[in-house]
Structure formats: C-alpha cells, structure tokens
UniProtKB/TrEMBL annotation:
This is Calponin-homology (CH) domain-containing protein. It comes from the Eukaryota. Signal peptide: none annotated. It comes from Arcella intermedia. InterPro entries: CH_dom, CH_dom_sf. SUPFAM superfamilies: Calponin-homology domain, CH-domain. Residues 1-43 form the Calponin-homology (CH) domain.
C-alpha cells in the first residue's frame, strides 16, 4: 500500500491524513477521503477539466441547494435527492 500511496503523491495528488496502515486497518473515513481525492485528481479532471466550482454549479442547476461538497452531504438528504 505504501508503494501505491507514494506513486499517487508523485502523480501530484495531495494525500492528507492517510497512510498505508489506514487502508490495511480499514479506516473508512480515511479510505473515503482517499477515494474522493482520486475522483477529483483523475476522473473529474480527465473528463472535462471540471473543478469543485463546476460540480457545485451543476448541482445547484439541477435544483440541489449545495454550498459545500463535504458538509452538505453529511445527513444523507442531498444524496437521496440526487439519486431521485
């Protein structure tokens, strides 16, 4: 796992508060943070250069009242609205 995380750092991804032991010990919060970093670092940039602001704009355009991509999702209501 340490080799993979080192590779991601060399790729320019900013890994915060995660180490190989977090993945091995199945620390969900750290793993979800890593997944979000991977999405932002690869998928979103690769598709169209989309940024956090572009995602917020899109969510607001489809009628979701989102101001923060982290805290606004904590109660689960927005993800339910998005799925519907």
């Amino acid at each position: 796992m340490a080799i993979v995380l080192d590779f991601l750092k060399k790729e320019g991804l900013r890994l915060v508060n995660i180490g190989a032991e977090d993945i091995i010990d199945r620390r969900i919060k750290a793993i979800l943070g890593l997944m979000w970093t991977l999405i932002l670092g690869y998928q979103i940039k690769d598709v169209s250069g989309t940024s956090r602001k572009d995602i917020l704009d899109w969510l607001q355009k489809i009628g979701l009242n989102v101001k923060d991509l982290t805290t606004d999702w904590l109660d689960g209501k927005l993800i339910c609205q998005l799925v519907n």
